[in-house]
UniProtKB/TrEMBL annotation, chain A:
GO terms for molecular function: cytochrome-c oxidase activity; heme binding; metal ion binding. InterPro entries: Cyt_c_oxase-like_su1_dom, Cyt_c_oxase-like_su1_sf, Cyt_C_Oxase_1, Cyt_c_Oxase_su1_BS, Cyt_c_oxidase-like_su3, Cyt_c_oxidase_su1_bac, Cyt_c_oxidase_su3-like_sf, Cyt_c_oxidase_su3_a-hlx. Residues 27-553 form the Cytochrome oxidase subunit I profile domain. It is a multi-pass membrane protein. It comes from Lutimaribacter pacificus. Its main location: membrane. Residues 1-19 have a biased composition (Basic and acidic residues). Residues 1-20 are annotated as: Disordered. It catalyses: 4 Fe(II)-[cytochrome c] + O2 + 8 H(+)(in) = 4 Fe(III)-[cytochrome c] + 2 H2O + 4 H(+)(out). The chain crosses the membrane at residues 47-66, 86-110, 122-146, 173-197, 209-231, 262-286, 298-318, 338-357, 366-390, 402-424, 436-459, 479-499, 589-608, 614-634, 666-690, 710-730, 742-764, 776-798, 818-841. This is cytochrome-c oxidase. GO terms for cellular component: plasma membrane. Its EC number is 7.1.1.9. GO terms for biological process: electron transport coupled proton transport; oxidative phosphorylation; respiratory electron transport chain.
Automatic annotation (TrEMBL), chain B:
This is Cytochrome c oxidase subunit 2. One of its GO terms (molecular function) is cytochrome-c oxidase activity. It catalyses: 4 Fe(II)-[cytochrome c] + O2 + 8 H(+)(in) = 4 Fe(III)-[cytochrome c] + 2 H2O + 4 H(+)(out). InterPro entries: CcO_II (IPR045187), CcO_II-like_C (IPR002429), Copper_CuA (IPR001505), Cupredoxin (IPR008972), Cyt_c-like_dom (IPR009056), Cyt_c-like_dom_sf (IPR036909). Residues 264-356 form the Cytochrome c domain. Belongs to the cytochrome c oxidase subunit 2 family. The chain crosses the membrane at residues 72-93, 105-131. It comes from Lutimaribacter pacificus.
């Protein structure tokens, strides 16, 4: 940073008004029915939160149905069939349609403002993710009204779920509907990572970043590594259901446990993906309420990262009763216990903050305190079930039902409510009622404990999970009745909360702009009616800027800092570098558009049609989606700017274009491909898993693919990558031949993919015959799908050059495409090794 | 009742004369000892006070394995309660504190409370857990029983020197002897769980898992499927009957025999059975019925319950089962026979109830 603030004198009022007018014009929210085309985070964030709470309400009603059914023994309120759908959908909706999306929703709403940024780096991507979420969620939840909801449990274990006779269309709806939603979740995660890394205000080095942003970074990173294995699993399971490919069928060399590994490699990090962002809310609320910075800032960050790492190493504790060797059980038991330590450090840092500060007991703090009481209890039972022999009894009993609700409701739901009370004035300009808040809290807290504390004992008395009824002589009657009563009290508390949130507040006084006198930047923005967020982007030198940088808020609001206007009527935000947040360039970001809704609609249609095996319609919808995305990119904000640089105020002048590793788009591609490669690793894991469980893999009697065409195919794809590199180099050097190289890429790539497929075809591999054949084919299919996406890129770049949107120095799209191809090169290399080299390794038992 | 010292299992677990807790399990299954409580507190206290809660309770202590695991339960419970109260007290004290100088205390809270104390506790727990796991793995089985989970019942095969003895839905085990259960499945994943005797183990197609049970208390104990297995998962139960070793030997020998002469003498009932096609799914050894799809019925009437443990086997229950199968167990694979004439039904029930 070279700029020194020197602009402390009051500014001329006319200029201030003109700047505000320019911002208002650039960031104008579409009105009327066009409101849905808005993409700004302050709108999309609110829609996202409302939609997530909508699904929460739906899943909560399902929970009430469950508790009503189980209130008395031998109840026939719900049929067996309907109950199995209800409990499956309850878990599915709570996990996939509430717990993870609410994190992303809250982050989309508050993260940019907390970072003094005008928006997230890819607003249309957030909007696209939101529409995918709504379409996918309505599709999955709506299925129950047609008696077609998934009924295989939220964990979807094959062979129950892989057999279309046993579990009908509901399972396809689950697999494809959720894959669709997971795509949206990953999209949001990518956006949040880039947001935290690249869109911080100048001077906000990583160590000055608010704890909330750290948690967002950690959790979004976890999503990136946790969701793709499930997508890989979904792909395998749907291939088995739809086309009979042998992955989980023990009779054909498959193994049902493969799914459990892939599912829980996702499923356990998922628990922390849910828990950490809620802790992040507490970590933000606590300093405001105690008037003290969080004690042990670095401890908290390191612990959060520690939890994230450990969470990927303990998935097997969901599989303690699957008959794994004791040595594995011991290892995963130890890892599961170890996670108590970083979790404990975070909690005790918060308790220490209470000690240092002077806290008052208001609604957010009540919910935070309730969260602590409930979560600590759930953590302690978690330590119990992580002990293998204890889990032999507790596993799949109501003890675990109680445990998981203590951790999730204490670790996620109560902090979310605390957050709603805290940020409600930020989002709406009104306060929620303290009195109703207390009612809501005590009803929920009491109801929750009445419902779930007895469930531990119900489990001890031997009640298993997922039973639609139980006999009267089992000794479970009274405990279940009490739990059901508690569930209704809990629901009553939620009704009070929902009433307070939704009731019209026309007559209630407007909240002060900063009701909590908090320290983070979101309380220095202009107000809920100004979607551009912060008036001017300040330079940050402290962790708690509104406390520790006196006068900063006034300066921001006076427009005394950077980027205080919208010069060409374009939406703009500042992009800084990852470590030190030095300003790098000003990024133009897109405004409202329907293209995101169309893209989400077409992609959703592709998934929904595939559910019904309407393959042609699905292919058409997919093509329409690709066309829409190309249009979206083409009309986006990536073109060559009319002026190369922009005056940001205070003498700071920044470029308006960036390409390569400095740009936000390059990072988005990089992070996307990390996630993509993780899914690919899931497929490789399947290969390795089969290799270890089978005495010989490939099985006796199977001819592995001929290495020659497979190697030729891999070389051709490598050649396509080399052509991409050559095109980038030639273009940057201003020399001829880049266009020709780009034109040759599809030729080489398609030939390479065809050679790979030919190798498997000529070896007579039949994916319905054996898991080996199916695994090889799915790897090849994966590469082919990537080649299909990859050949669009050089053609797109070529068109951009022709249309004058790219030149030798403005080559962001080309550099991002090369990055994609580099990842594809690595994946192709691994696939080649598995096809051509791995079968040469002699198997131990053959 | 005061807690009794309970020896850890070993090669020859000690045998008690009376059922644990002085409860007659046979009466328990009729609900005579069902917990009757009025208030929330009492609901929580009741199992604590009685120490065993019924034929499905982890704390019934009917088997060595369950007792080994139970040694973890009470220390865990009280330890967790103490820790929870300590954390809450600390949080409340910190909330109320108006102390000015806090630096040393803060360090102690974060490092002590967050790292050291939990570190010691989880390390200790881990050691205890692994020692317990080893104790469970050290049980040396004599008897071997193969149990296959089926949708939604249990196929039970005793491996005896004289050959395989096939039965279903009720597992009899000799008291004081460690039995090895070989668990698998042909359709979907199930899990075998007899909580009063020991922990659970999954039954996975393509794999055979091993679970040992060492029953100590004679009586009838409940078991159920713990892994969601589709439709009628909730009604996939079984009984474990623990017998004196001599009585067990007699029972196993009888179970190996074909159907009793008294049953085969009921020609009218047998012909209803065969004419209705029951033999396509069920076996009755000594007759033409040799179906393998459903439970073996050769000694059907010697079992306590029907429909995979869901109802006591009585004449009336059996009639209802045959005529309104789906009402008793929605999702069950067996078709109902509502159109049997009253005479045919009488004959069929008479035949089945004679399959002692």
């Amino acid at each position: 940073m070279t700029q020194v603030p020197d602009d402390h004198q009051p500014r001329d009022g006319g200029r201030d008004a003109a700047e505000r007018a320019s911002l208002a014009e650039a960031w104008r929210t579409p009105t009327g029915w066009r409101y849905v085309s808005a993409v700004n985070n302050s709108h999309v964030g609110k829609w996202y939160i409302l939609a997530a709470f909508g699904f929460f309400t739906f899943a909560g009603l399902l929970a009430l149905l469950i508790r009503t059914q189980l209130a008395v023994p031998e109840n026939d309120l719900l049929s067996m069939e309907l109950y199995n759908q209800v409990f499956t959908l309850h878990g599915t909706a709570m996990m996939f349609l509430f717990a993870v999306p609410i994190f992303e929703a809250v982050a989309i709403l508050i993260l940019p403002e907390m970072l003094g940024s005008r928006d997230l780096p890819f607003p249309r991507l957030s909007a696209f993710g939101f529409w995918c979420f709504v379409i996918g969620g309505v599709f999955v939840c709506g299925s129950i009204f047609w008696n077609a909801a998934p009924s295989g449990g939220w964990f979807m274990y094959p062979p129950l779920s892989s057999d279309p006779e046993q579990t009908g269309i509901g399972t396809d709806i689950w697999l494809l509907g959720l894959s669709f939603i997971e795509v949206a979740s990953i999209a949001a995660a990518i956006e949040l990572i880039v947001g935290v890394l690249k869109c911080r205000p100048p001077g906000m080095r990583l160590n000055l970043m608010p704890l909330y942003c750290w948690y967002v970074l950690v959790v979004a990173g976890m999503i990136l590594f946790a969701f793709p294995p499930l997508i890989a699993g979904d792909l395998l399971l749907e291939m088995e259901r739809a086309f009979g490919w042998a992955f989980f069928d023990a009779d054909r060399g498959g193994d049902p446990l493969l799914w459990q590994h892939l599912f829980w490699i996702f499923g356990h990090p998922e628990v922390y993906i849910i828990f950490l962002p809620s802790i992040a809310l507490i970590a933000t609320i606590l300093p405001a309420m105690t008037r003290s910075p969080v004690v042990g800032h670095s401890w908290v960050i390191l612990s959060a990262i520690g939890v994230a790492f450990l969470s990927f190493g303990l998935w097997v504790h969901h599989m303690f009763t699957t008959g794994l060797p004791n040595i594995s059980l011991g290892f995963f038991s130890a890892a599961s216990e170890a996670v108590a330590i970083p979790t404990g450090i975070q909690i005790f840092c918060f308790i220490a903050t209470l000690l240092v500060g002077r806290a008052s007991l208001n609604a957010p703090m009540l919910f935070a305190g309730g969260a602590l009481a409930i979560f600590v209890f759930g953590g302690l039972t978690g330590v119990m079930v992580a002990i293998v022999p204890f889990d032999f009894q507790a596993h799949d009993s109501y003890f675990v039902v109680a445990h998981l609700h203590y951790t999730l409701i204490g670790g996620m739901l109560f902090p979310i409510f605390a957050g709603v009370y805290y940020w409600y004035p930020f989002a709406t300009g009104h306060m929620l009622s303290e009195r109703l808040g207390r009612w809501a809290f005590w009803l929920m807290f009491a109801g929750f404990n009445i419902a779930f504390l007895p469930m531990h004992w119900t489990g001890v008395l031997g009640m298993p999970r997922r039973v639609w009824t139980y006999a009267a002589d089992m000794g479970w009657n009274e405990l279940n009745l009490v739990s059901s009563a508690g569930a209704y009290i809990l629901a009553a508390g939620f009704v009070v909360f929902a009433f307070d949130v939704l009731r019209p507040k026309g007559r209630t006084p407007t909240a002060p702009a900063d009701p909590w006198k908090a320290a983070t930047l979101e309380w220095a923005r202009e107000g809920p009616g100004s979607p551009w967020g912060i008036r001017s982007v300040p330079e940050i030198t402290t962790r708690y800027p509104l406390w520790q940088q006196p006068g900063l808020k006034d300066e921001i609001l006076r427009g005394a800092w950077y980027l205080s206007d919208a010069k060409d009527g374009r939406r703009e935000m500042m992009v800084t570098d990852i470590l030190d947040a030095r300003p790098m360039f000003v990024q133009r970001i897109p405004g409202p558009g329907f293209v995101t809704i169309f893209a989400a609609g077409f992609l959703g249609a592709a998934f929904i049609f595939a559910t019904y095996h309407w393959w042609l319609a699905a292919a058409a919808a997919l093509a329409a989606f690709v066309a829409t995305v190309l249009y979206w990119l083409w009309t986006g904000t990536g073109g060559i700017p009319q002026t190369p640089r922009r005056d940001c105020g205070r003498g700071l002048e920044l470029p308006l274009y960036a390409s390569g590793a400095g740009s936000a788009g390059w990072w988005a591609m990089f992070i996307t491909m990390i996630g993509d490669t993780t899914a690919f690793v899931g497929l490789v894991f399947a290969y390795a898993f089969f290799w270890t469980v089978h005495g010989s893999f490939p099985p006796p009697g199977t001819t592995p693919p001929d290495p020659l065409p497979a190697s030729g195919g891999a070389l051709l794809i490598a050649a396509a990558w080399a052509l991409m590199m050559a095109a980038r180099g030639l273009n940057a050097a201003g020399r001829r031949g880049a266009g020709a190289a780009l034109l040759l890429v599809p030729v080489a790539a398609v030939a390479g993919a065809a050679a790979l497929a030919f190798a498997a075809f000529r070896a007579g591999l039949d994916p319905t015959r054996h898991a080996f054949d199916a695994t090889i084919w799915v790897l090849i299919l994966w590469i082919c799908a990537h080649v299909a996406a990859g050949i669009l890129m050089p053609l797109y770049c070529l068109a951009r050059f022709r249309a004058g949107h790219m030149d030798a120095t403005h080559d962001a799209e080309l550099r991002n495409s090369v990055l994609f191809w580099t990842f594809l090169l690595v994946q192709t290399g691994v696939t080649w090794a598995l096809i051509a080299l791995a079968p040469l390794i002699p198997s131990g038992a053959s | 009742m005061p807690p009794q010292p309970r020896p850890l299992g070993g090669q020859s677990p000690p045998v008690e004369q009376a059922p644990a807790c002085g409860v007659d399990p046979a009466k328990l299954c009729q609900g005579e000892y069902a917990i009757r409580v009025k208030s929330h507190i009492a609901v929580l206290a009741a199992p604590l006070l009685t120490g065993c809660g019924g034929r499905h309770s982890w704390l019934a202590g009917a088997g060595a394995e369950a007792r080994i695991i139970e040694t973890l339960f009470w220390p865990f419970l009280f330890g967790a309660a103490v820790l929870w109260l300590a954390v809450m007290a600390l949080a409340i004290a910190a909330f109320r504190s108006r102390r000015e100088e806090t630096r040393g205390l803060v360090r102690a809270i974060i490092i002590g409370g967050g790292a050291i104390v939990p570190g010691i506790i989880v390390a200790a727990l881990l050691v205890i857990g692994l020692v317990t796991l080893r104790a469970l793995a050290a049980m040396q089985p004599g008897l071997s029983v193969q149990v296959d989970g089926e949708q939604w019942w249990w196929r039970v095969v005793y491996d005896t020197p004289a050959g395989a003895v096939v039965t279903a839905n009720e597992i009899r085990l000799p008291r004081g002897e460690t039995a090895e259960l070989l668990l698998s499945s042909d359709d979907v994943i199930h899990a075998f769980w007899a909580p009063a005797l020991g922990g659970k183990m999954d039954m996975i197609p393509g794999r055979t898992n091993r679970l040992t049970l060492t029953p100590l208390t004679p009586g009838s104990w409940g078991g159920l499927c713990a892994e969601y297995c589709g439709g009628a998962h909730a009604q996939m139960r079984f009984d474990v009957t623990v017998m004196e070793p001599a009585a067990f030997g007699d029972w196993l020998a009888a179970e190996a025999e074909p159907a009793s002469a008294q049953a085969l003498a009921r020609q009218d009932g047998l012909s209803v059975f065969l004419d209705s096609g029951c033999g396509a799914c069920h076996s009755v050894r000594g007759t033409e019925a040799a179906g393998q799809v459903g439970p073996d019925l050769t000694h059907f009437a010697a079992r306590q319950r029907l429909g995979a443990g869901i109802a006591p086997l009585t004449d009336a229950a059996l009639r209802r089962w045959i005529t309104r199968t789906q009402d008793m167990k929605p999702g069950v694979e067996m078709p109902a026979y509502p159109d049997l004439s009253p005479e045919a039904l009488d004959a069929l029930v008479g035949f089945l109830m004679a399959l002692k």
